[in-house]
Design a protein that fits this description.
The protein has two domains: about 1-340, no CATH class; about 360-490, Rossmann fold (3-Layer(aba) Sandwich), CATH 3.40.50. About 60% of the residues lie in helices and about 5% in strands. It contains 25 helices and five strands. It has helices at about 1-15, 20-30, 45-55, 60-80, 85-100, 100-105, 115-130, 135-155, 155-170, 170-175, 180-190, 195-205, 205-215, 230-235, 240-255, 260-280, 295-310, 315-340, 340-350, 360-370, 375-380, 390-400, 410-415, 415-420, 450-460; strands spanning about 380-385, 405, 435-445, 465-475, 480-485. Strands 2-1-3-5-4 form a five-stranded mixed beta sheet.
């Protein structure tokens, strides 16, 4: 019932929540099918393309494959937990996982973390089967499928592979399983799944590897890595956070239990948590990374009912579940507010930035209201977006996958510049065009650092720009600027601050 209730809530949100900017870019990649892309392997884009082919070019159409994978991930937790305890404890483990706010909302957004989570759990289910019976073809196929999906989902699956490999080598029963051929055949299938990504990097100067492993990370110690602890405490909810750490300790104390694979699970979850915690002191802090440890917390949920029964503290379980339910309700409430115009305005008034979600629907409506819209829709007038974020959202909203964008620093900072160049979608304003040209920008007003320098450079490149319309959204915290490119002698008119 909990699973069905949350799935219904996620379905409602997926149908109403505006696309996040990364989702729009994955839709864009899905409109240009390839074996891999500059930012990711191909699976997320392929799922996005499948979604809109079956469900239509809408938010829900894009997200439904991710909703299914998120729902299936919950059931995989039950399968993992079945290796540790009774069927009742297995279903309890699935419920505990659904009380993790991030896991409860998994699949609402069409992001690579959804297939990454599914692949991680599939690998654990498969390997536990291989560990018990190294000759089981079903378990080997399950393990191989997880390895393949993970390789096609995200570069970050490499961290899962590293932690899993160490756990296997440190677990005696897992080492015994390696003496059979089936696990190695599954590993070979998983290794081959990295081939498309390797070929893309080989043909494009290792651009993806350099961005994901070198350029986005400072690889220098920064003390703000300690912020991971309070962030995880809030995201997992405090009491559940404490119970899961206690479960990890209990797993490690009972690591020699021959009846259950406690040692393997403790190693998988513990290595992921410790490794990501240490990495947080050296890795990228500009982009969101709070969701990275989620697979480790979910794996610990699989053993949590066994520890709770051993500890015999039902009052503690009830208190943790109550607090976790409040966290899940808060997460869904925030998403529901983000899905409504009034909710986004209320959040913006209180300093919560929603630029990744909001504004693009209003900007698309503004373009459709222009007198030149029929010509713009048919391509007789060229529309250029200011950066890849706005370009992706406008391409989705207007169903124009060939929409062009400027070469903006954001494109390089997020590893998308090469992809736009490969698609031949980088616009050059100084190059004359036989068609009239409109330019759409996202402008945060006077608070935008470097605003004057940016518009000065834009005017030098474009020659002449005439301000057509200024559209404020979210109580004026952000606004969209529509320009018409004109001959240089007509001057350049930046928007008011």
């Amino acid at each position: 019932m909990l699973w069905a209730l949350l799935l219904a809530a996620k379905l409602a949100l997926a149908a109403s929540l505006p696309l996040f900017v990364d989702e729009a870019f994955y839709w864009w990649e899905g409109q240009h099918l390839a074996m891999a892309y500059s930012d990711l392997p191909g699976l997320t884009a392929w799922l996005a393309r499948l979604g809109v082919l079956v469900g239509g070019n809408s938010e829900l159409g894009l997200r439904w494959p991710f909703l299914l994978l998120g729902a299936a991930s919950s059931l995989l937790v039950v399968r993992v937990a079945g290796r540790f305890g009774s069927p009742a404890q297995a279903w309890q483990a699935g419920c505990w996982a659904l009380l993790l706010p991030l896991f409860a909302t998994l699949g609402v957004l069409a992001l690579p973390d959804v297939p990454l989570m599914f692949a991680t759990l599939l690998c654990v289910v498969g390997w536990l089967g291989v560990r018990d019976n190294p000759q089981s073809r079903q378990a080997a196929v399950c393990f191989a499928a997880g390895l393949v999906l993970g390789a096609l989902a995200h570069y970050r699956f490499g961290l899962v592979l590293l932690g899993g490999a160490v756990a296997i080598l440190m677990d005696a029963y897992s080492r015994q399983a390696l003496r059979r051929p089936l696990p190695w055949l599954a590993a070979l299938a998983g290794a081959l799944a990295w081939l498309p990504l390797a070929l893309f990097n080989l043909w494009n100067g290792e651009a993806g590897w350099r961005f994901q492993l070198l350029e986005r990370h400072p690889w220098a110690f920064h003390a703000d890595g300690w912020w991971q602890l309070p962030i995880q405490l809030l995201l997992v909810t405090p009491l559940l956070f404490a119970l899961l750490l206690a479960t990890l300790y209990w797993l490690w104390r009972h690591r020699n239990d021959r009846q259950r694979p406690l040692r393997f699970l403790s190693l998988c979850a513990g290595l992921l948590l410790v490794g990501l915690f240490v990495l947080g002191f050296f890795a990228d802090r500009e982009r969101v990374s709070f969701h990275w440890p989620l697979p480790a917390w979910v794996l610990l949920c699989a053993a949590l009912p066994s520890w709770l029964d051993a500890a015999a503290r039902p009052w503690l379980a009830r208190a943790a579940a109550t607090m976790a339910c409040a966290g899940v309700a808060l997460a869904f409430s925030l998403l529901a507010m983000t899905a409504s115009t009034s909710g986004r305005t209320w959040l913006a008034d209180r300093g919560v930035s929603l630029n990744g979600f909001s504004g693009w629907r209003e900007a698309a409506a503004m373009l459709r209201a222009q007198p030149e819209w029929p010509a713009l829709a048919q391509g007789d007038i060229e529309l250029v977006a200011g950066d890849f974020k706005l370009g992706a959202q406008m391409a989705f909203a207007l169903e124009q996958p060939k929409l062009r964008v400027l070469d903006h620093p954001l494109n390089h900072r997020h590893g998308r510049a090469l992809q736009l160049r490969l698609w031949k979608l980088e616009a050059e304003l100084q190059r004359p065009t036989p068609r009239p040209r409109l330019l759409l920008l996202r402008d945060d007003g006077a608070s935008w650092r470097g605003r004057d320098a940016y518009y000065a450079a834009l005017c030098r490149e474009a020659g002449g720009l005439r301000l057509r319309q200024l559209l404020p959204v979210d109580a004026g915290t952000q606004r969209f600027v529509l320009f018409e490119q004109v001959p240089a002698e007509q001057g350049c008119q930046p928007p008011p601050a």
